[in-house]
């Protein structure tokens, strides 16, 4: 679909990364913002019924970009069963649901761009749940891309700490941050280029 104006839903488009993605994509595409409580399209990625209803109401989407998803950051010894389930149901299964349901509802050639994070291969104190979720997303995207070959494309953007976002500054002490505008370019690449099953890492290289 390179060169074609696409109708793109950005779920989480009011967030730090999401707003940069919306700004970049809006220059060449028709962009809708989706969210649980704000945006153009109402969707709760933790609720399968909400996702189904969203796709039934918007079957003409060309692409779905997800920049939303929550995981708890706590020391391993303090993570409860509810914490694990919260992270798995939200950031992991929420994005899985969006692809699985979307593949049934959207026309051939649809594109899904999901979000994980550098904790798939780097580690911080309190990041065990995030590491599990991010690794699961990477494995899912690689496998789903094979099963959806010829029907839909699925890619994953794995960003590091975002410059100016103070929420995770302490947890990611010692990690180099990059701008949300730089990160947004990887979403454009995942959307526009003939890629599927790719994990696009976008963070300053960690000293080893």
Automatic annotation (TrEMBL):
<keyword id="KW-0560">Oxidoreductase</keyword>
<dbReference type="InterPro" id="IPR051122">
    <property type="entry name" value="SDR_DHRS6-like"/>
</dbReference>
<protein>
    <submittedName>
        <fullName>Short chain dehydrogenase</fullName>
    </submittedName>
</protein>
<comment type="similarity">
    <text>Belongs to the short-chain dehydrogenases/reductases (SDR) family.</text>
</comment>
<dbReference type="InterPro" id="IPR036291">
    <property type="entry name" value="NAD(P)-bd_dom_sf"/>
</dbReference>
<dbReference type="GO" id="GO:0016491">
    <property type="term" value="F:oxidoreductase activity"/>
</dbReference>
<dbReference type="Pfam" id="PF13561">
    <property type="entry name" value="adh_short_C2"/>
</dbReference>
<dbReference type="InterPro" id="IPR002347">
    <property type="entry name" value="SDR_fam"/>
</dbReference>
């Amino acid at each position: 679909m390179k060169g074609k104006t696409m109708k793109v839903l950005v779920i989480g488009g009011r967030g730090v990364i999401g707003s940069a993605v919306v700004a970049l994509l809006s220059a060449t595409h028709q962009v809708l913002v989706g969210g649980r409580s704000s945006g153009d399209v109402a969707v709760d990625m933790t609720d399968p019924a909400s996702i189904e209803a969203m796709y039934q109401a918007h079957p003409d989407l060309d692409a779905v970009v997800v920049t939303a998803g929550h995981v708890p950051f706590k020391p391993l010894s303090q993570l409860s069963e509810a914490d694990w389930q919260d992270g798995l149901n939200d950031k992991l299964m929420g994005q899985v649901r969006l692809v699985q349901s979307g593949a049934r509802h959207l026309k051939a050639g649809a594109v899904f761009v999901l979000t994980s994070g550098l904790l798939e291969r780097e580690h911080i104190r309190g990041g065990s749940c995030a590491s599990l979720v991010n690794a699961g997303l990477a494995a899912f995207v690689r496998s789903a891309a094979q099963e959806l070959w010829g029907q839909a494309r699925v890619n994953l953007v794995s960003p590091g700490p975002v410059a100016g976002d103070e929420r995770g500054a302490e947890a990611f002490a010692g990690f180099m941050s990059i701008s949300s505008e730089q990160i947004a370019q990887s979403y454009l690449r995942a959307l526009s280029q003939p890629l599927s099953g790719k994990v696009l890492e976008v963070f300053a290289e960690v000293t080893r």
